């Protein structure tokens, strides 16, 4: 049986059109983009073209794009660079409790360096209350960092409204848009975003490349020192082939956005409707309002079973899904996102994410719907938690389980 990949929020395959435009930069077009001779010029032209393609995806002007090695680097640079440049102005950051670790752990590091961080809470659906945001602002607040869309639940945050609040108080606004670009419309001008991060490998470009948009005039210290690449924002010879691939992936994503949304949304809805109607005792994680969720993401908890064992059992059928975020799987701690949403611990442990992509087909979804309900039932039949729920109180197994 052929494999079914439903883990696009973790990474995506490089698109053939993307690989095609990259190859010459591993062969004849090998120059250093900083060189003045023909070999350098060939390549620097390609970088500038990629800058335009990337910028167009979120309605930016190309001069404001800094190429980086990944989404995590972009987030680190935006946050640490801004705080360092504005340290005379203040030392307070506002972010949320559901950010990707690239933001969350950067903020935790800064706290150790003496910065103040407010982590905004979310409700049970994982959504923010913007009154909390306004209430958290102080004279010392220099940066607000809120992700455009969450990688685990797919929840989309009200970035335009947050941008208005940031502007009203003259606070810089950073957003991790790694999961949003290519899936929903993203416009830095409309949303008044100052700093925005994307990652290549989430949108059909290779791993090891990303981009940071920096609004013109935004002060930001560099993290990497050395050469004068990227207008002094980031030292180091650029990953030319990766950047060319990122440009192409952005061009394709923009051209195909409407078609992608409709197609993937229909498949995700088919999966969501199927799972919700065929599997009892489950909880949808994230907002039930599908308009406010990424079109490709479904996160559900299956009561009485472990997410990890479900993943392994689905894997036996060639189905790749994910529990929590890719970065936290392998650890026994349930995801911080489920924790922030107050999802009960055992349900948090069974949280399972299905994330679809442009290559996903209807027959793949139907295959999952054929396999999943029976697999869940089989695991439940083996689960003491499940069986105890059906026996009289005082069951010994149940007590044992409770004590653990
Ligand atoms: C994947 C991801 C990142 C990290 O991107 P890398 O390129 O893997 O470093 C950051 N934020 C979000 C929301 C992500 O999904």
Coarse morphology: globular
Q: Determine the strand fraction and express it as a percent band.
A: 5-15%
Rg for CA atoms = 22 Å
Q: Which compounds are bound in this model?
A: pyridoxal-5'-phosphate
CATH fold name of the largest domain, please? Aspartate Aminotransferase, domain 2
Major sheet strand order: 2-8-7-6-5-3-4
Main features:
3-stranded antiparallel sheet, binds pyridoxal-5'-phosphate, alpha/beta, 40% helix, 7-stranded mixed sheet, 404 residues, 12 strands, 2 domains, Aspartate Aminotransferase, domain 1, Aspartate Aminotransferase, domain 2, 13 helices
Can you walk through the features of this model?
The two termini are 39 Å apart. This protein has helices spanning 16-22, 38-57, 71-85, 101-112, 130-136, 159-168, 240-278, 307-315, 336-340, 345-349, 362-382, 384-388, 396-403; strands spanning 4-5, 65-68, 92-96, 116-120, 141-145, 172-176, 195-199, 210-214, 282-284, 297-302, 319-320, 351-355. Residues 391-395 and 397-404 have low confidence and may be disordered. The protein contains 13 helices and twelve strands. It folds into two domains: 4-10 and 257-402, Aspartate Aminotransferase, domain 1; 16-255, Aspartate Aminotransferase, domain 2 (3-Layer(aba) Sandwich). The chain is of the alpha/beta class. The chain has a seven-stranded mixed beta sheet with strand order 2-8-7-6-5-3-4, sandwiched between helices. A three-stranded antiparallel beta sheet has the order 9-10-12. Strands 1-11 form a two-stranded parallel ribbon. Helix 6 (159-168) links the parallel strand 5 and strand 6. Bound molecules: pyridoxal-5'-phosphate.
């Amino acid at each position: 049986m052929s494999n079914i990949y439903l883990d696009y929020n973790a990474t995506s395959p490089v698109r053939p059109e993307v690989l095609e435009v990259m190859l010459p930069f591993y062969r004849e077009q090998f120059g250093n983009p900083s060189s003045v001779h023909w070999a350098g010029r060939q390549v620097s032209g390609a970088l500038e073209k990629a800058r335009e393609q990337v910028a167009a995806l979120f309605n930016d002007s190309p001069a404001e794009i800094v190429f980086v090695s990944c989404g995590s680097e972009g987030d680190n640079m935006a946050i640490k660079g801004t705080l360092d440049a504005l340290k005379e102005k203040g030392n307070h950051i506002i972010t949320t409790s559901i950010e990707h670790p690239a933001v969350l752990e950067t903020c935790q590091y800064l706290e150790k360096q003496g910065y103040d961080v407010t982590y905004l809470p979310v409700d049970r659906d994982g959504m923010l209350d913007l009154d909390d945001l306004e209430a958290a602002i102080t004279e010392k607040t220099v940066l607000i960092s809120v992700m455009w869309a969450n990688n685990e639940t797919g929840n989309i945050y009200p970035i335009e409204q947050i941008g208005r609040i940031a502007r009203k108080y003259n606070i810089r606004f950073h957003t991790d848009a790694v999961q949003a670009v290519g899936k929903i419309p993203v416009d830095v001008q409309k949303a008044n975003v100052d700093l925005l991060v994307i990652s290549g490998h989430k949108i059909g470009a290779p791993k090891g490349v990303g981009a940071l948009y920096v609004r013109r005039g935004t002060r930001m210290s560099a993290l990497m020192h050395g050469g004068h690449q990227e207008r002094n924002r980031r030292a180091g010879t650029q990953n030319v082939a990766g950047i060319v691939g990122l440009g192409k992936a952005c061009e394709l994503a923009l051209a195909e956005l409407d078609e992608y949304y409709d197609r993937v949304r229909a498949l995700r809805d088919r999966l969501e409707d199927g799972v919700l109607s065929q599997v009892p005792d489950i909880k949808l994680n994230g907002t039930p309002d599908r308009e406010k969720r990424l079109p490709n993401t479904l996160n559900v908890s299956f009561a009485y079973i472990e997410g990890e064992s479900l993943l392994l059992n689905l894997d036996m059928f060639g189905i790749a899904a994910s529990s929590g975020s890719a970065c936290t799987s392998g650890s026994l701690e349930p995801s911080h996102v489920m924790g922030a949403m107050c999802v009960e611990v055992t349900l948090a442990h069974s949280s399972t994410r299905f994330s679809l992509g442009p290559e996903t087909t209807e027959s793949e979804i139907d295959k999952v719907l054929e396999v999943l309900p029976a697999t869940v039932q089989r695991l439940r039949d083996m689960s003491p938690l499940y069986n105890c729920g059906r026996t009289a109180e005082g069951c010994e197994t149940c007590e044992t389980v409770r004590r653990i």
